[in-house]
């Protein structure tokens, strides 16, 4: 069964460093998403991406964040200068553009630890 | 601000018990309600998506109901098994694709 994959599973970085989190969405999906869960808090929406541009973003997704689909298979989230409060589990998700219920299929997450 | 609440926060049951938990969401601007099952270190797995008031969905021993007028959904597990141990998340969306999640119900089934 097709699934969303994410690499790495765990990333440790120092404050101020740039990180890139990678995702391979399900192959015939055209909508892509990033969510995050800070420890002990709810899963929060960051951004959705369709047709090579951002379609929705939350207040969390500020200028420190960017997303890209560099080729036909990968979808990335870049954090330019990490802060301690960026430590969280980051989930990638994908879905069909034709889904009327906006179903989303999630990857296993990347745990980002900023020290 | 959309707020989705789930209760209880955690639940311990014995194998064979039936159990249910609740998801409450804003009844205005409702579009769809999603249930996910999430085991530690795995991907959250989509269980159900419901859109219509009165919807009932079933998958094996797990079923869900939806009341959009009063803003709640119930998830039921009949005859719980140890492999049902997981966190059950509900998420809500309006006409936008962004999902707003509840904090989850953590279910532990003792053999």
Topology, please?
The complex is a heterodimer of chains A (115) and B (111).
Chain A: E1 5-7, E2 10-13, E3 19-24, E4 31-37, E5 43-50, E6 53-57, E7 65-68, E8 75-79, E9 88-95, E10 105-106, E11 110-114
Chain B: E1 5-7, E2 10-14, E3 19-24, E4 32-38, E5 45-50, E6 56-59, E7 62-67, E8 72-77, E9 86-93, E10 100-101, E11 105-110
Parallel strand pairs in B: 2-11
Antiparallel strand pairs in B: 1-3, 3-8, 4-5, 4-9, 6-7, 7-8, 9-10, 9-11
Would you mind describing this structure in some detail?
The complex is a heterodimer of chains A (115) and B (111). Chain A is mainly β. Helices cover 0% and strands 50% of the residues of chain A. Chain A contains no helices and eleven strands. In chain A, strands 2, 4, 5, 6, 9, 10 and 11 form a seven-stranded mixed sheet that branches. In chain A, strands 1-3-8-7 form a four-stranded antiparallel sheet, with no helix packed on it. In chain A, β5 and β6 (53-57) form a beta hairpin. The mean pLDDT of chain A is 95. Chain B is built from no helices and eleven strands. Chain B is mainly β and 111 residues long. In chain B, strands 2, 4, 5, 9, 10 and 11 form a six-stranded mixed sheet that branches. In chain B, strands 1-3-8-7-6 form a five-stranded antiparallel sheet, with no helix packed on it. The N and C termini of chain B lie far apart (41 Å). At the A-B interface, β4, β5 and β10 of A face β4, β9 and β10 of B.
Order of helices and strands of chain B: EEEEEEEEEEE
What radius of gyration of chain B results from the CA coordinates?
A: 13 Å
Q: Distance between termini of chain A?
A: 37 Å
Estimate the strand proportion of chain A. Answer: over 45%
- The multimeric state of the shown protein is heterodimer
Shape of chain B: globular
Residue-averaged pLDDT of chain A: 95
In short:
Chain A has 115 residues and is mostly beta strands. Helix content of chain A is 0%, strand content 50%. In chain A, the strands form 2 sheets. In chain A, strands 2, 4, 5, 6, 9, 10 and 11 form a 7-stranded mixed sheet that branches. Chain A has a 4-stranded antiparallel sheet with strand order 1-3-8-7, with no helix packed on it.
